[in-house]
Amino acid sequence: KAVIATAILLCGSAHVESFIQPDSSTGAIRTRIATITSSTSLHAKQRPDNEAITETSPSVISGGATADELAWQENNPFTTAPDDTSSAAAATADWIKQDFESQSSTASFPSANQEDDQKSQLLDNGPIRGPTNIIVYDTTLRDGTQMESISVSCADKLKISQRLSAFNVDYIEAGWPGSNPKDEEFFHRAQTELDAKTKSKLVAFGSTRRKRIQAKDDAQIQKLVECGAPTVCIVAKAHLWQVTDIIRAEPSENLDMIQDSVSYLTSLGIDVMVDLEHYFDGFKFNEEYTLKCCDAAVKAGAKVLVMCDTNGGSMPWEVDEITKETVEKFGNLATIGIHCHNDCGLAVANSLTAAKAGVGLIQGTINGIGERTGNADLCSIVPSLALHISSKMTCNDNLDEITSLSRYLDETLNRTPDRGAPFVGNSAFAHKGGLHVAALERSPDSYQHVDPSKVGNKLRVLISELSGRQNILGKMKKLDMDIDEKTSNERSLVILERVKHLESMGYTFEGADASVELMILHSTQHYCLPFRVLDYTAQVYDTDVDSASRVMSKMENNKTTNGGTVTKTNLARATVNVRVLDDPNHEEDEFLDRLEVAEGNGPVDALANALKKALVPSHPELENLQLIDYKVRILDPAAATAAATRVMIEFKDIKTDRQWTTVSVDRNIISASLNALVDGFEYALKDVVAGCTIEDFE
Fold it and tell me: 231 or 657: which carries more pLDDT confidence?
């Protein structure tokens, strides 16, 4: 206050207040005015052109503003007051303002290696301007959870928060404490269960106060205060029609709701961001009113104005034009942010367009989850900004972890990952055409826009009837097979022809790399089969063939009541006879035949249980093997019950987190399933088998 009072003595309150907003307690403003006022005499301040200012008008010395000046400011809220004729004070005010604005537009951005407790102070050095500097704001745990079929427990929200913090997003919007008990529980537990770095990034979401009530008396506002989050983001209506027809408030009352809510929260030392709902639609409907909403938020102390494309219908050129105008008017007073929805499939494009136009904060979610068709996908936005635009973000150093983060979220939310997702999808760097693969062998840049390792992904060469010899050679190279070039070329052609023949029968190897690798290994002279299935049987039985009874049985989790005693009922039994190594340490070449029986909820489940039971004594590492997916597809439905069936099974080693998929085709669905199971178990053992073949034993 003393520093600003000194500036008023120099410049007059009308001129100082025209560019110092109510949030002028920020370090950047204090430091800048203090530098100007403390280094020179109060009565003789030197301007940059060395022209001394030695006089001020009486009205300025007294700190007063003329009636004309006040009237002008009221009618022109977005610009500074005109200079007094020959007023030295006004000239000084202009100089201070230019110096301050110059500093604000080039505000420094903390590097990723600064202390963790500075991460929550990103906005304290003045507004951030994109695309050079970008603040990453994650709303996965709030807006993301509004997607259909997504629900997350409080415990999982805490785990995801820690993972997002480790990736180093700048802000984590964790929920709305005033709307549901789960989010209240989260913020309560966060105080003791999260580390200091993660807590400094937390944002509580809420709304402006209700109509006809003060912010300090609003229960929802008080929940935001009590939750302990250092930053709050409140949503406000920025569309005149939404104000008058949806919440049915007077336009002036809505402005008061914004001003009162922001002012109250900032007075308590809380950093406030404002989500301006329906911003782009509101701007097109009534530009003047939408800008008044911005002005009310900024004057009350908001540090960030977030333009929301709430309905997801804005086009990139509209976003560009409106963003530029908003940044021009308010970009030196607050950081401008963007929040896009994907209803037109343009959320990522609109976010990047806004960044290019000057937005300094981007809101989005991991994997683009969110209400309706989703939010802007940070897994596309962050790599695009880092690798194609060279934006500075605190998470840049962790970019190679973004694929892992994407898959961690899907795993936690029990979602199937999107194989075709840019950057992080399993198919993002998968190549199928032979010409493409041949070109990639000469230069990885020939058919890739970035190095997949930079985002933690990897190049994959797919095998199919469209493949060329280079696809097979690439797989052989990956397996590090010790064979000469001539032999490699010969075997690759043979394997390729076999792949094309099998795919003509209905096989598909694009998603079954494990089956392809086994095909290649089987073509080598010294590969050792870790086991061999000699024969098997599978039986399905039931005690009641009435369909309704079977349905009820499944609903009761395969339990029946017999005389008051609950017993478990398995509906299938399988027998498997295998030849295996007798030594579990794989040091001796002695083999034995082992016959095992197991039950399951169906014939495939029973076969998997019996096969694992027979193999684990010789191969204990298979204890970690899990079947995580089973897919069946009928290839020729016209053949009815005689149709060929394709089975794909996905496996996972729970110890190493490694996953692989195998495939088989047969007109007998049980045989197809067993063949895929055998391939999956064999692939798990390919690196630990002995150096001879079971056929040698015979």
Answer: 231
Amino acid at site 40: T
Distance (Å, whole) CA 200 – CA 286 = 37
Q: What percent of the chain has pLDDT over 90?
A: 47
Identity at 456, one-letter amino acid code: G
Could you tell me where the beta strands, DSSP code E, fall in 260-350?
271-277, 304-309, 335-340
Tokens linked to 131? 């695309």
CA 164/CA 139 separation, integer angstroms: 11
**CB neighbourhood size of 404 (10 A):** 17
User: Residue 131 has what pLDDT?
Assistant: 96
**Where are the strands (E) in 202-357, listed by range?**
202-207, 231-237, 271-277, 304-309, 335-340
Residue type, 426: N
Block residue for tokens 């002012």: 263
Q: Is the model's pLDDT at 625 over the cut of 60?
A: yes
pTM: predicted TM-score of the whole model, two decimal places: 0.60
Host H or E run for residue 350: helix 347-356
Q: Which residues contact 3 (CB under 8 A, 6 or more apart)?
A: 30, 33, 34, 37
Element housing 42 (H / E): none
Closest by CA position to 496, among listed 459, 471, 523: 471
Cα dihedral 418, 421, 424, 426 sign: positive
**3-class secondary structure for 578-598?**
EEEECCCCCCCCCEEEEEEEE
Mean of per-residue pLDDT scores for the chain: 76
Query: In 391-478, which residue ranges form alpha helices assigned H by DSSP?
Result: 402-412, 434-442, 469-478
Band (pLDDT 50/70/90 cuts) for residue 12 is: very low
CA 250 to chain centroid, in Å, comes to 38
